[in-house]
């Protein structure tokens, strides 16, 4: 069934993978295949993860945030935008909105939630609230196909039968909490169906970001997107933009081609990606890149030629890198960033004579070092590490990968702050070209990046005309306007495509 703007795709049975989506027409890189509003969505209770992206307004950076900071009062519960001042619901005192327009738009979904929160005495966790919103919608509209949906909530996979003991225990706890919250006057659902809804949330909940893609702020269910199967080298990507999920083409797609997205970061060995997918999403990945272990050789690269290290030396350095990464994580958790820098420098001294330029352990240290040094405003050293990181990423990632675009953007900004305007402008232009495809021209971060591209182009012209004058003007500008603090380094990995309960 295709309706509600979904005419360009159809659901089909993919061999060995269950249902999937395939194209009904040709798409070019950057095309929006479909944009889907959430079936139901809620704001997180608190900060979960900060996405590894940078706020791109010129000389404007994200504020340092506490990992325990509540999100429910700083994020609009309708459009998921972060705002300075929000209007609070006068009844439940829990929901917040940008303005009366957002509040009126939310009332259909918030009405039952509002009275339930007042009756319960407090708002439950996001999983309970999301399950309740889904079931209230089913109560209003039935469990059949909703407008614009290719499949019903009933048909979504829950994988409850594949849950381990700990997951089953969490499921029982969620169901018990839900039954305490669910009003007795509302339609009563069976335990099996309630468990199905929580299974759907666990396996298919999509993480929503704020308007600039800087922070994960909520979770929602998007039935059409849920039909897109995984591939480690996908032909589509997903971005949250203007209140909807967009499925965007990364490469040319012909009619009849399956539409795929990646559930995990490609910057892991095939075996590690397969383990992660099996653990989190309950399937074995048999994509071409996993079967043939494509690019694993690059991610495990070592120095060649006469100086090629022995297998024992490589093993020793990789173990040292793993141990160092654990120490770095501990130091970052404690905010000991100068200690992080020392650990990175010591590790790089061990790695550089042994590991190749695309080795994932080297790239991970370079990424951390460049991020933390930028935060500490040691931009020249950070720029060197960022450039090496990007050079490695360009050989590994899909050329239109969103995480590659963000990394290139970060490197460009670091070079710009270091006064390396030629390299900085080049990297910013490269990042802009990638984000035009992955995020589109209307996304706030792409618009901010375009402003930076224009600004660095003007500065580059001045630099080319009179290098001495450029540095004098830059020096004067820095005296008059202190460089803004860079974002505090996050200790979290980049989030997967789908939300997993913590």
Unreliable stretches: 48-69
User: What is the count of β-strands?
Assistant: 12
Rg from alpha-carbon coordinates? 24 Å
Helix content: 40-55%
User: Kindly, what is the distance between the CA atoms of the first and last residues, rounded to a whole number of angstroms?
Assistant: 35 Å
The helix/strand series, from N terminus to C terminus, equals EEEEEEHHHHEEEEEEHHHHHHHHHHH
Q: What is the approximate shape?
A: globular
Average pLDDT confidence is 87
Write structural notes for this entry.
By secondary structure, the protein is α+β, with helices and mostly antiparallel strands. It is 46% helix and 11% strand. It is built from 15 helices and twelve strands. The strands form four sheets. The protein has a four-stranded mixed beta sheet with strand order 1-2-12-9, with no helix packed on it. Strands 3-11-10 form a three-stranded antiparallel beta sheet, with no helix packed on it. A three-stranded antiparallel beta sheet has the order 4-8-7. Strand 7 and strand 8 (216-221) form a beta hairpin. The longest helix has 23 residues, at 311-333.
List keywords for this structure.
alpha+beta, 3-stranded antiparallel beta sheet, 12 strands, globular
Summarize the model shown.
The chain is α+β, with helices and mostly antiparallel strands and 502 residues long. The chain contains 15 helices and 12 strands. Helices cover 46% and strands 11% of the residues.
